[in-house]
Amino acid sequence: MNIFKNKEKFILILLFSAMLLVIAACSDDAANSDDTIDDSGEDTAGDESEGLSGEVEFMTISLSPTFDDYLNNLKEEFEAEHENVTINLRDVPYDQVEQVVLTSASSGQLPDVMNLNTDFVKKLAANGAVVNMDEAAADVKDTFFEGLWETGSVNGEVYALPWYTTTSGLLYNPDLLEKAGYDAPPTTFEEAWEMSEKIKEETGAYGQVVTDEMHLLMPKNGINILNEDNTQAAFNTSETEEMWKDLKEKYDKGLFPEDVMLGQVKLPELYAQEKVAWWSTGPQLFRQVKDLAPKVYEKSLGAPALEGKAGVQHANPMNIAVSSNSESKEAAVEFAKFVTNAENQLEFGKLAAVLPPVKEAVNDEFFTKGKDSEDATESGKYYAAQQLESAVNMTPPVEAVSEIYKVIREAFHRVILEDVEPAKALEEAEAEVNSLLE
What we know:
By secondary structure, the chain is α/β, with parallel strands linked by helices. The chain is 44% helix and 11% strand.
């Protein structure tokens, strides 16, 4: 299938939708190989799918026209297996999704199968508008990585299947590490900071750099942004206070620059100039360095993302949900499982530079071949796929999430740049966040 046109546009959309969650489901019978997905084309839906009928509208977000061939192929294959089912494709631009979903929900006319972000999944689930997947898709639950299956959960029940996602890898410069006496990159944040001081002394380059993503650094180290029911701030803790004090000390030592923290300078630019020893990001972005500085990219290597105290990584998954009012509910559920099975997830991962949150798919050679690759992007892709085992979505499912992140970010900036005591900054930020949640 030739669906690579406008691929860069798709990746930008994916990043712009960084708060979107991903869905992936895999049929229990999808493969019988240790390394590959069974592409025999056999119907793996099982006896329950026999006799399916009706029309099913499948709404996607900003996938057309780039992935029209892929989506049409899904439609044709499913219809060939179920001759009494008709799949109608509908793609909605990202900036129109909210209006379309809210309008459709208010009229009780939601699309049968929907590509949704996590926030919408939870809102619709709270109103009984989408199907409980713990019940309807129980047969495929164990094919997903546990942390990603829980993405669409509300009150302990899951209402969406995880589709495509991303995680991070580490791009590093072995020359800078060698000059500082290291032969391997750090594996934890603690180790990264230990190495950073020597790297700065020996090379003048930075090691670990603080970005504007405090909202991810905190959960990776076991600090929750909100409480369990997302009604109050939960980050004003002694652990956060100690973290911010420690980072303030590191800043005062000159171990990280303020311009990156403030979003004034982009890390790929610093990395390309060999002013920073490593860059943690999605491996699909590693080649930005190749565009900026081919020689720096050629000597760079890929590694797993740094691990915090909580031992989890962040993933931004998309979801697929089924309308509880669908007139073709059985067919819609089976189609949702078909879209997110291992074979179809793997195919989409190959085309779109994303990861399938299905256990079987990431064991395919497409990902595993990168384990020993000297190309940073290939090895980074392997490590990112392996990290799905410990991946969770760290974005609180509340409308004011962007404002909450801004409050936390600005409180941290006051600690670093204005010498405000961490305890005071956290107390003020807590009050602001609680006000946003009222």
